[in-house]
Amino acid sequence: MLPAYTASVQYLEECRTALGPDHRNTAVATSTELLHLKNLFRTEELGTDCRTSVANLMKHIRSDTSGVFSEEDRTSLIETASSRLSSSSSSPLASNLKGGQKCQTHDYTFNYYSDEMWTLLMDPNKSNEFKMKSMTKAWLSWGLIFPSAPTFRSGVSTLMVATNLEARPEQAKSLFNQFTTVFRNLRDVHRRTNPAATMKQFPETVAEFEAQYPNMVVNPAPCRIDVSNVQELSTPSSVPCRKNNSMLRSSTSSSQKPNSSAPVADSNMSAIAALLDIVMNRTQAAPPADRQATPPAGSLAALQHDQGRPPKRLHSKTPLAS
Predict the structure, then answer these.
(1) Is the dihedral of CA 231, 235, 237, 243 positive or negative?
(2) Three-state DSSP state, 296
(3) Separation CA 211–CA 82 (nearest Å)
């Protein structure tokens, strides 16, 4: 990075000598070199001794007396160079990544919203879909093109806290699915105008982000909600991302237990009622067999009937002819 800065200073000095310090092309060349150096400081790979390299660069820029860059320009270059070593910021997202490698994580989106965005998010008359679309447009304007699942979870948690919404895990999962669908649809619609993806891991403060990507966050305002509530909700148990989440299985099974026992009880009662109907119908339809088969009391047939033997048939004797 230091050789690049030295080369830019030499080039601008030649422009000033050849064209004059007040020539319009000199001013254009200065702005172009400033952007070129910032982009180079963000993307150039650092070696193993990166801290020494950045420290030497910062010392050289601070002691530069050529006058080609203003004090404000030199300060912005130092900020850009030092941000490469910040543990909370990330290097730009490489353009040759594919699939899940492109995922970007932003756990602090609530620090990047404007006052207008907070007013919208906390408006009870606005639908969740409209709020999700507004959040999507803000994310895309920051270069947050490929949000990770934790980023969507944090966004849903922010929306729930801003609207005072208490949701069960299955309801939060529905909001998560809705947000991802809204985001992907809008990203595809505006794919030609979306900026390039910026950071892979976004920093907590806007100042750290703008040190590498100035003027990409419009009118950031202080967060209006309790951040601790957002962080408490930003967990898989509160806002599930996957279908096989245990919280979804437990809530589904418990909700289905009362309903599953009701059909069993109904079917048992129906079976019992059907059996009773069959028994009653057969009883009513049966002929009074006992009355027809029972012989008169005191007769020989009655005695034999009581002893379980079939009655004997009595034959009358024919009188002999005299």
Answers:
(1) positive
(2) coil
(3) 9
The rounded distance, in Å, linking the Cα atoms of 12 and 6 is 10
φ and ψ at residue 147, rounded to 5 degrees: -65, 140
Task: Write the pLDDT tens digit of every residue in 22-35.
Answer: 888 888 888 888 87
* DSSP symbol at 319: P
Residue type, 181: T
pLDDT in tens, 150-205: 999 999 999 999 999 998 999 999 999 999 999 999 999 888 888 889 988 899 99
Q: Where are the domains of the chain?
A: 2-83, 99-248
Is residue 19's pLDDT more than 90?
no
Residue 176 CB partners (closer than 8 Å, separation 6+): 152, 153, 156, 239, 240, 241
Please give the Cα distance from 189 to 314 (Å, whole number): 109
Residue 220 has a CB neighbour count (10 Å cut-off) of 17
Instruction: Tell the residue number behind the tokens 């990409």, with chain if given.
Output: 216
Between CA 242 and CA 83 the distance in angstroms is 35
Q: In this structure, what token pair is assigned to residue 187?
A: 């990203």
In DSSP terms, 147 is beta-bridged to: 104
CA dist., res. 20 & res. 13, Å (int)? 10
More confident residue, 180 or 73: 180
